Amino acid sequence: MKFIKEELSYLERHDLHRRLNTMYDSQASRTVVNGKDCLLFSSNNYLGLTEHPRLKTAAMEAIDRWGTGAGGSRLTTGNLKLHEELENTIARFKNAPAAIVFNTGYMANVGAITAVAGKEDIIFSDELNHASIIDGCRLSRAKAEIFPHKDTTALEKLLQQAHGYRRRLIVTDGVFSMDGDLAPLPRLVELAEKYNALLMVDDAHATGVLGRRGAGTAEHFGLEGKVHIQMGTLSKAVGSAGGYIAGSRELIDYLRNKARSFIFSTALPPSVIATANAAFQIIRENRQILQNLHLNAQYLRSGLKQKGFSILAEESPIIPVFIGDADKTMQMAEKLFSLGVFAPGIRPPTVPPGTSRVRVTVMATHTREDLDRCLAVFARAGQELGIV
Predict the structure, then answer these.
(1) Residue 132 and residue 149: Cα distance in Å, rounded?
(2) Which residues are catalytic?
(3) Same domain for 250 and 311?
């Protein structure tokens, strides 16, 4: 097919072609990528739980008792007691009346947005929201108004101008995955209340990361109970797989009956559900891992700034090191990898042209030696490429 060859050729010429990196070991702080030993500074395994023995044991015990698969959708034969236990755990963790588990965070966003909003409704979405939110807005057939990143003044003007719609939905990432900054949640709550809008927050990168207990952005800002639809994932800090929505009992019952990505999917396997449940127990019992995560992030972020790098945000364990040019960014990522640090370059279309960056993420399990080695490698690579 000619158009495929032409598109691939275009991507190659503009240094936008992507290839898979192969992991030969686990998502630990030290791992093997493409056959090379390296320090891992790109994983969303924020708390390092994918390696925790209690999670591994929970997975194996679940397989022994429940088998390897759920065998059906949740509304047919796939609803195991394990699923309901996990949903109760998530509801308590999020300080919400109820929760529902989806197979992925992507499916949670698409399922919730398309169930709540339709062609008679309007959605207000931050311009840097995750692709799953963008796709959910498109599939809902609702009118979508995109407001400039975190610009609540522009959002209020759009809300004032929106007349004749059945429902209004404001949707935002809690932590923006490429910039690492936080949504202005206090102001969003005010606007949702003032203009009678539903508020949905994607806490994929905040679950297990932000707040005193790691419960996310609402807890971080002291706004628990003020966000109507709280989405999160089980695949990042929780160290398992899947996504969830937490909210009122009526909302969760409604999603069970209306969210197509929930209704028409085979349920997550028992091992995955048991792993997530074990992870939430550890997060609840061991607050030190959350403290370690933020101490590590603060140390690495400060060190990178001292060495002359430009950091786009300072509010989360996501540390975007700004480069700008896509080609130079990929050169930087390749140089880092050659020196033993795996931190990928992020370029268009994931981020806008001219804003390419190396996206660094920190884990609670990184040692001070790991962090110092990372800083030394960044300094050497940056100097050799003329970035610092």
Answers:
(1) 17
(2) 177, 205, 236
(3) no
pLDDT digits (tens, 9 = 90+) for 220-253: 999 999 999 999 999 999 999 999 999 999 999 9
258, 103 Cβ separation under 8 angstroms: no
Report the distance separating Cα 344 and Cα 319, nearest Å: 12
- Cβ atoms of 190 and 221 closer than 8 Å: no
Cα–Cα distance between 136 and 115 in angstroms, integer? 9
Q: For residue 188, give both structure tokens.
A: 């969003």
| CA separation for the pair 38, 341 (Å, rounded) | 5
Render pLDDT for 147-195 as a digit per residue (tens, 0 to 9): 999 999 999 999 999 999 999 999 999 999 999 999 999 999 999 999 9
For residue 165, which of 146, 150, 144, 185 has the smallest C-alpha distance? 144
The whole-model pTM stands at: 0.95
* Domain of 253, in residue numbers: 53-285
Q: Which residue has the tokens 């628990």?
A: 224
Cis amide bond preceding 349, omega within 30: yes
CATH number, domain of 346, equals: 3.90.1150.10
Among 223, 255, 285, residue at a domain's last position:
285
